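Task: sequence design from structure.
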């Protein structure tokens, strides 16, 4: 192999390593159905102008987290499945200190980004293996694993447990 060929291969490899993450980073895809969640603010990955819109299928394509916990709104232990907020933020390249979570009825609450940790809250789209209707706190509900940590069993955290969630604003 001559020197120009080696140099071209090295340059090609370096270009791939540099540009491939950027190409992937912004590839959230496009909603094929009605969006159930929009995220705006300090996010690096968008799919509709300056926001990220997710239909249910797109949320289900992100890593899923399932846990069982009791809540003050349900009877007995319930099994919730959804996307962990930290996984969603990684997919969005989200930066900020505060998350404004807003429901269909415009109920809004601030969550600290520090809540978005492994083993923390999820944006649940299933309750006991079934999708949640708007009538039953769905289609999305921010749920903390209340039983796993006493810090999650406070009035402040309960107020952050937004059901009928449809928007997040990252600041």
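Answer:
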């Amino acid at each position: 192999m001559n020197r120009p060929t080696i140099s071209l291969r090295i340059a090609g490899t370096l270009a791939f390593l540099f540009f491939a993450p950027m190409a992937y980073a912004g590839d959230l895809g496009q909603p094929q159905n009605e969006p159930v969640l929009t995220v705006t603010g300090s996010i690096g990955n968008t799919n509709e102008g300056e926001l990220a819109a997710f239909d249910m299928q797109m949320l289900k394509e992100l890593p899923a987290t399932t846990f069982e916990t009791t809540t003050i709104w349900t009877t007995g232990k319930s099994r919730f499945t959804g996307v962990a907020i930290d996984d969603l933020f990684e997919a969005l390249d989200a930066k900020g200190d505060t998350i404004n979570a807003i429901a269909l009825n415009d109920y809004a609450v601030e969550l600290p980004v520090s809540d978005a940790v492994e083993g923390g809250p999820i944006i649940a789209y299933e309750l006991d293996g079934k999708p949640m209707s708007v009538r039953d706190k769905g289609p999305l509900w921010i749920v903390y694993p209340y039983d796993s940590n006493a810090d999650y069993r406070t009035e402040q955290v309960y107020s952050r447990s937004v059901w009928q969630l449809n928007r997040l604003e990252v600041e």
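Residues 3-25 have pLDDT under 50 and may be disordered.
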